[in-house]
Amino acid sequence: MSIDRLDLWIVILALGAGSFLLRFTFLGLVGDRQMPDWVLRHLRYTAVAVLPALVAPMVIWPSATGGSLDPARLSAAVVTLLSGYLTKKPLLAILLGAATLYLGLYLAG
Amino acid sequence: MARSTTKSRFWQGVRDGAPFLLVVGPFAMLFGVVATEAGLNLFETMAFSIVVIAGAAQFTALQLLSENALAVIALISALAVNLRMAMYSASITPYLGALPLWKRAIVAYFLVDQTYAVSVAKFERETDMTPRERYAYFIGVMSPVCPLWYVFTLVGALVGSAIPDWLALDFAVPITFLALIAPMLRTGAHVAAAVVAIALALGFAWLPYNLGLLVAALAGMMTGAQVELIASRREDPA
């Protein structure tokens, strides 16, 4: 039942090394060499593609509700997105989103 | 003069990174709790967080190990969860590639969802920053985020109790990231990239090992690049 100590340390060390390599490969090997235009054009959209893809399932199927759609969480996400888009102020968007979430959870009882 | 700009860039980074305390603190604490419950001692738990420094991958590996999966399966699954870090690294290279190698190694170690998202938003917005200023800013963003990852892992391992449910801190991750992404949606190409990525992330959520995320991200990036290309041809029909 308990985790094998050798397995544990192999995973900790190899996962640490592997994660570092994933993070270092481009920064370390490409450095300041000029990348082709088409690569740069794709990289410009990395953040706006990866981060929404990362959070979309958390918004639609929150683990806290066992994966069922939750009006409070959904409206909090919509308010955050809209207020961030319109005001361009992330901190304000976080505050409005959190307020919406707690209000929604309170109303839902 | 140059010194004072890098210093002020550092403090801008600290300010912009600070809200992510809310995300990282509870998540790290939860890891401390779960690892302790899985039978890891304090040293092992802390080593996990310090060596790996990637929440989702740590949870994946720990979960599989406690189900008695083969170590190599736990390792590969957790690395798959972390594949997005390679995309972060590529995306930030045009901004930080000119730094000395040891600084790039430091950036690589601290390149996590939060530090990447905050920094790349800033670098896109302020194109006139020097690599030194960008580095100072990145270190600033990292300062309230990464050390707290260690500290709260420790708190979780020692206190051993989770955060109360009514705080709904599970939703701190979506809210903070959405707040950061929304202002980055400057053009139709950005919006198209995000919409395609969201649709495919939901459609491919059934894929194992977070691979749906990679499919969605790559398709989103290709969409953004194509829309940009079409828009620029329309503007400049050469």
Structural class of chain A: mainly alpha
| Discrete helix count of chain B | 12
Q: What's the mean pLDDT score of chain B?
A: 91
Rg of chain A to the nearest angstrom? 20 Å
Q: Which stretches of chain B are low in confidence, meaning pLDDT under 50 for 5 or more residues running? A: none
First-last Cα distance of chain B? 44 Å
The Cα radius of gyration of chain B reads 19 Å
Integer tally of domains of chain B: 2
Gross geometry of chain B:
globular
How many strand units of chain B?
Answer: 0
If you had to describe this structure to a student in words, what would you say it looks like?
The complex is a heterodimer of chains A (109) and B (238). Chain A is built from five helices and no strands. With 109 residues, chain A is an all-alpha fold. The two termini of chain A are 40 Å apart. The relative contact order of chain A is 0.06. With 238 residues, chain B is mainly alpha-helical. The model of chain B has no long low-confidence stretch (mean pLDDT 91). Chain B has helices at residues 2-17, 21-37, 42-52, 55-66, 71-81, 84-96, 101-109, 113-125, 131-159, 172-181, 188-203, 211-235. Chains A and B meet through α1, α2, α3, α4 and α5 of A and α3, α4, α5, α6 and α7 of B.
Summarize the structure in short.
The complex is a heterodimer of chains A (109) and B (238). With 109 residues, chain A is mostly helical.
Question: Which features does this protein show?
Answer:
heterodimer; A: 109 residues; mainly alpha; 77% helix; 0% strand; B: 238 residues; 2 domains
Topology:
The complex is a heterodimer of chains A (109) and B (238).
Chain A: H1 5-30, H2 37-43, H3 46-60, H4 71-87, H5 90-108
Helix pairs in contact in A: 4-5
Chain B: H1 2-17, H2 21-37, H3 42-52, H4 55-66, H5 71-81, H6 84-96, H7 101-109, H8 113-125, H9 131-159, H10 172-181, H11 188-203, H12 211-235
